[in-house]
Specification:
The structure is a single chain. The chain has helices at 11-29, 38-51, 74-87, 91-114, 121-130, 133-140, 145-163, 172-190, 198-208, 219-248, 252-261, 272-279, 283-288, 291-302, 306-320, 326-329, 333-346, 352-382, 388-391, 393-403, 421-425; strands at residues 61-62, 67-68. Helix content is 68%, strand content 1%. Strand 1 (61-62) and strand 2 form a beta hairpin. The relative contact order is 0.13. By secondary structure, it is an all-alpha fold. It is globular.
């Protein structure tokens, strides 16, 4: 009997080889494309401020408090700062974000396999995720969204693995509550928009527990699960807030409020009027995420799991009620990909109509993967060489070294000159 592609453990080698090849193509132009921009600089600066809370300078300085802005999203920001310190270059944070996308794509593939996916469509969805046009913008610009997505996929994979093993049935409510509670809080501290992932975790936990005779949920087990979830979430919240409180003294509330006022938290700008405005302009979502309309139409036609639709609707409404922009919309990607994965699983059924539709959808998936590969190569490998002389950040560093030289200097950095941030720090 012919073995299906990616149905055995050895196929992970093929996956990692392909992933390394795709990452290598990105690295060709990473040093000069894209140009330095506000988000990657501010994220790195938040990490520096977390490590140096009493710094006398910052590009996120609060004039009212006379100190740098320190927010709750410090874990990933600190890692971005450490990546800069290790490399002494803007390449450090960018490579760390790229690595996060590689981890996220791998965990997505593992999650889809754990929930019963098999065949070549599983790694194909992983490639489609890694080469999503707007996710590529995120990790090439040094944002930390990829790490937030990686944490979600890890939690979902662990949920399926945990709920699918009879040996794990003992103390299961405690294990699930602990996993989801701590994981959700950690992810919130990586980037607050990840709060929209919570309904998806609930949906996956519900589906993973279906048809398992060793899983018997009742009022008692449900209460234990809720108690462990709340307790672990509270513990995680205290442990992650503690460093901010220690470093800032009594300034924790001011720090958190300052970041909220700056529109960095997920809930910033929520309003009913904004919700209605964004619901009337669904083209925003379609423009920012091309897979959005395709997955929705296919999911409606093929009647995918209702719990996924509830989770998606809650996340969609939450994002619609906030300020809709590119790097918030990509947090809908997990919902889109779980809809696509469910569609391919349903089309693996032996009925002849399902087989015909399955062949068509597989052909469509191949076309989307081919288009993503072409777009990635054209946009981020070939095109950057044509405008390298205009966008290469290394030119700023070279000019600074030539005109200013090395040694301790006071370099003026403001919000209008963020392109000079890394050059000024060097």
């Amino acid at each position: 009997m012919k073995r299906r592609l990616f149905s055995g453990p050895d196929d992970w080698k093929l996956w990692f080889t392909g992933l390394a090849l795709m990452a290598g193509l990105h690295l060709i132009t990473f040093s000069f494309s894209p140009n330095i921009w506000v988000d990657e600089v501010q994220i790195t600066e938040y990490g520096r401020v977390a490590l140096e809370p009493h710094s006398s300078w910052s590009i996120v300085w609060q004039t009212t408090n006379g100190k740098p802005l320190q927010g709750v999203t410090y874990p990933a920001c600190v890692l971005q700062e450490l990546a800069w310190q290790v490399t002494g270059s803007h390449l450090g944070p960018r490579i760390f974000s790229l690595f996060g996308a590689m981890v996220a794509a791998t965990l997505l593939v593992g999650w889809l396999r754990a929930r019963g996916g098999s065949g070549w469509t599983v790694p194909a969805l992983g490639v489609l995720f890694f080469l999503d046009p707007y996710l590529m913008v995120s990790y090439r610009f040094g944002r930390v969204d990829s790490w937030s997505l990686a944490v979600l996929f890890a939690l979902a994979w662990m949920l399926w693995s945990l709920l699918s093993r009879p040996a794990a049935a003992t103390g299961l409510p405690q294990k699930v509550g602990l996993l989801v509670g701590i994981g959700t809080v950690i992810n919130f501290f990586i980037w607050p928009t990840s709060a929209v992932f919570f309904p998806l975790l609930l949906a996956e936990g519900f589906l993973a527990s279906q048809g398992k005779p060793w899983l018997r949920w009742d009022v008692g087990s449900g209460s234990r699960l809720a108690g462990w979830f709340l307790g672990s979430a509270a513990l995680g919240l205290i442990l992650l807030l503690l460093p901010i409180g220690i470093l800032n003294g009594n300034g924790l509330g001011q720090s958190t409020m300052a970041q909220a006022q700056g529109d960095y938290l997920c809930y910033t700008g929520w309003s009913g009027g904004r919700l209605l405005e964004n619901l009337k302009s669904l083209e925003t979502f379609c423009r920012f995420c091309p897979l959005f309309p395709l997955a929705l139409v296919a999911g409606l036609v093929l009647r995918t799991k209702w719990v996924h639709w509830v989770a998606f609707l809650l996340a969609f409404l939450a994002i619609s009620a906030s300020r809709v922009y590119l790097f918030r919309v990509i947090y809908l990607l997990p919902f889109i990909f779980i809809l696509l994965a469910t569609i391919f699983q349903q089309l693996q059924q032996p009925s002849e109509p399902k087989k015909r539709i399955g062949r068509l959808t597989q052909a469509g998936l191949l076309l989307m993967v081919a288009w993503s590969c072409f777009f990635a190569a054209a946009s981020w490998v070939v095109a950057p060489f044509y405008y390298k002389a205009k966008t290469d950040p290394n030119l700023l560093l070279q000019a600074g070294m030539h005109h200013i030289g090395t040694g301790p200097r006071k370099v003026f950095l403001d919000n209008f000159g963020l392109s000079f941030y890394y050059a000024g720090r060097n």
